[in-house]
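Re: that chain you flagged

S.,

Sorry for the slow reply, it's been a week of failed gels. I finally had a moment to sit down with the sequence you sent. For the record, here it is as I used it:
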Amino acid sequence: MKFGGSCVKDGANIRRSAEIVRDYARRGCRLVVVVSAMAGVTDGILEALRCAEEGREDEASDFIEGLRRQHEKACEQAIKGEELREEVWRKEIEEIDELRKLLSVVAYLKEVTPRVEDYALSFGERLSTRIFWASLIDQGVKAEYLRGWEAGIITTDDFGSAKPLTTITYQEIRKRLNPLLERGVVPVVTGFIAATPDGVITTLGRGGSDYTATIIGGALKVDEIILWKDVDGVMTADPKLVPDAKPIPRMSYDEVVELAYFGAKVIHPSALEPAAKENIPIRVKNFYNPSVEGTLIIREAEADTVKALTMIGDAAIILASGVGSSEALSANIRLLDLLCRLGIQAIMVSQASSQANISIAIPRKDLEKALKAIRREFAAGELKVDYEDGICVIAVIGSGMRGRPGVAARIFNAVAGEGVNIKMIAQGSSELNISFAVKEDDGVRALRAVHRAFELNA
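Prediction finished late last night. Pasting the C-alpha cells below so you have them in one place:
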C-alpha cells in the first residue's frame, strides 16, 4: 500500500496512516508500505535549488529552517516514545544538514544538473519515510526502513524520469523483501527514488511514489495494490468543478490511462504498467474515510457508456492549413515531428479528411515556442498558421462507448444546450474517449452539462 499527499501532510496524518497499516498487520496481512514526501516538500526543494543557483542563499537557508521545523513537529506528533523519537530526530538532522551542504555547493557553482536535482529531491521521501517507519515501530509493528534502491529498485540514468531495469529490479525486490515478509516484518520504502546499477540516486518522475508501489507490487505479485488518496476513489469528474461528482466503483486499466493522459490526477500512466502486466488489481481509497471501498482498477470492468470526465485547462489550438493536397501529408508529419522534437505535448489532434487542414491542441505555455519554431521550419507561404488560446480540452471516457451509436450526439447536444461553441473534436482509435475543445471560460459549464446528460450523479 502507498501513502502520499494528504496522508503525510503532517505528523498527525503520518500517525493515522501508521494506524491503518497496524490494523491491516493485526489481521494477518503481509504488507509493503511506500511513502511519499510530506506535503509541499518536493516543490520546496525545487524552489530552494533555484534560489541557490541564482545566488539567493538566504532564501535557501530559510527553506532549510522551515524544513527542519516541519519534520521536528512531525516527529513529535507521530512518535510517542521519547527515546525512539530522539533517535529518529538525530538521523533526520543528519539528512537535513546533508541537504543544507548540497544547497551551499549549488550556490557556489551556480549550477543545478539533473543528477544533482534528483539527489536533492530524494531527501523529501527519506525524511518522511523514516518518521512513518518509527511511528509503526512505536505502535508495536515490526518494520524496516528502506530507501528505494535498498528495496531493490534499479533504474536507468535518465535523471528526472528514470525507468526501472525491470529484470534486475524484480529479482532484487524479491531477494530483499521476501525474507522480511516471511519474518512478519513490514518493509517501509521511500517512494519516488531509486538508483542506477552504480548507486547514483535517481527519481521516477512526478507520480513516482505510485510507480514505486506498483513496481514492488508487480515484482512480488501481490493480491492488491492500495493507493491512499484524499477522495473516495476515482471520481466521475473533479469534485471541485462538478460538486455532485461521485466515486466510480470499478474501472479498467485502459480507462484510467485515458483519464490520466487527459489530466486527471489519479495515477500516472507509467504507474499502471507493472500492475496491468501482472494483472494485479489497484484500489484507490480515501485516507480520511477508510471504510469506503473506493475504486477497484482491473483488466475488465463494467462497460458503462460514459464513466468519467476530465478537463485540461490552459491550452491553445494551432490551426495549420493552405497546403496543397499533394504536400499535405508531408507537411502534417513535419509539423507533428517538430512539436515532438520541441518536447511539446499534442493534447489532441484533429485533421480534415483532405489532410489539408490540421488542428493541434497544446499547452498554452508552449504556444509561443511552437509558433516561432513553425515559422523557422516552413518557408513563407508554405503553410498558413493561425492559433487560438484560452482553450480547454474536455475528455469523455468509458469503454461502453465502443460501437454504441448516439453517444457523440448526446455529448454535443448537452454542450449546445448550454450555448457553448465547440472548437475542435477528436475520438481515440480505442473508442474509449471522445474529446473536444471549447473556450476556457465555457469549460466548467460544458463539463457539468455532459455530466448531467449521462446521469453520472445518479
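What I noticed first: The chain has a mean pLDDT of 91.

Talk soon,
D.
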